[in-house]
Design goal:
single chain, alpha+beta, 5-stranded mixed beta sheet, 19 strands
């Protein structure tokens, strides 16, 4: 059987992941559409979430951790009045609040009741900004004794995950779709669970709540305006499946490395690094020590190195 020839693509695409599709499934679909040799994604989104899923191709997969470490922005809507087992629409209701009547009617966003709710949220929100102790949802991908927490929870086990510190830069109200729903925007760091934030806001107010809409709009340097949908990728593939056409969609490998110091080296030093050898600096152009720097040669990214006692030591070089 003849071996399938795949495109050796290197770089990033910011996918707009659709609803009801897992991140791994979305990755497989994009890889198939681009006939890519190698690909990985930079940060999981739940099937019930939509939005920005950074996908790395080829040598860009060596930089995935920097995408995952970047700041993330989410928009999410909380339904007040009930808490669920999964902290979103997928789970069963486990607790309810009498704060909201079963029959909502005509309350307007600027009614007295709504203004009072907004005031309560504005008092509560500051407690969820900064370094925050958060307990991840039982239905999460965190491993407990080698098993995924969500697998244990689905099997009926009582999963209690340890609280951990996460960093939340900001939480703000951006909409009030119904009298008992609030839409927020949050900017946060790695490891933050938006579902847990919604749950904790519900407990802090006494209203209880769960997520009914979740959309990621930014990951590190990738913004909402960078996103491309699966439908658009399919259209482009049918129109022009050539590798050159696909290459024009890709952002450079170093896109997620904007915050890392960059150092340019000469041809001889570039060759030594490619051979796995250290390079001694001959001037004061670099720090004496650095955990990671982006090394370039002739305007092209060469790879990632550490700086130890004035010497560059290769860590992850790009095979371009």
């Amino acid at each position: 059987m003849a071996k399938i020839l795949r495109n050796r693509l290197h770089g990033w695409i910011a996918l707009d992941k659709p609803l009801a599709m897992g991140s791994t499934q979305a990755l497989a679909k994009v890889r198939w559409l681009l006939n890519a040799e190698k690909a990985g994604h930079g940060g999981t989104l739940d099937p019930l979430a939509t939005g920005l899923l950074p996908i790395a191709f080829g040598e860009a997969t060596k930089t995935i951790q920097w995408a995952m470490d970047g700041k993330k922005t989410y928009q999410f809507t909380v339904q007040w009045g009930a808490e669920t087992s999964t902290d979103d629409l997928e789970g069963q209701i486990v607790s309810t609040s009498n704060y909201f009547p079963a029959n909502e009617n005509k309350d307007l966003p600027h009614s007295a009741a709504n203004l009072a709710m907004q005031h309560t949220l504005k008092l509560v929100i500051p407690g969820f900004v900064g370094a925050v102790q958060q307990q991840p949802p039982a239905y999460s991908a965190i491993k407990v004794g080698g098993e995924r927490a969500y697998d244990m929870a689905r099997a009926g086990h009582d999963v209690q995950l340890a609280r951990r510190t996460v960093n939340i830069d900001s939480v703000k109200i951006i909409d009030w779709p119904t009298p008992s729903q609030t839409t927020f925007e949050v900017v946060c760091g790695k490891g933050t669970y938006v579902r847990a934030l919604a749950r904790d806001l519900g407990r802090a107010t006494g209203w209880l709540g769960h997520v009914v809409m979740l959309r990621r709009t930014a990951v590190g340097p990738f913004k909402e305006t960078d996103m491309i949908s699966l439908e658009k990728l399919e259209q482009l593939r049918h129109r022009d499946a050539s590798e050159n056409s696909l290459m024009r969609l890709l952002r450079p490998i170093e896109t997620v490395l904007d915050g890392i110091p960059a150092l340019a080296v000469m041809a001889a030093d570039a060759q030594r690094l490619r051979q796995g050898q250290s390079v001694l600096f001959r001037g004061s152009e670099a720090p004496a020590t650095a955990e990671v720097v982006l090394v370039t040669h002739d305007g092209q990214a060469l790879g990632l190195c550490s700086v130890e006692k004035g010497s560059l030591k290769p860590k992850r070089l790009f095979n371009l």
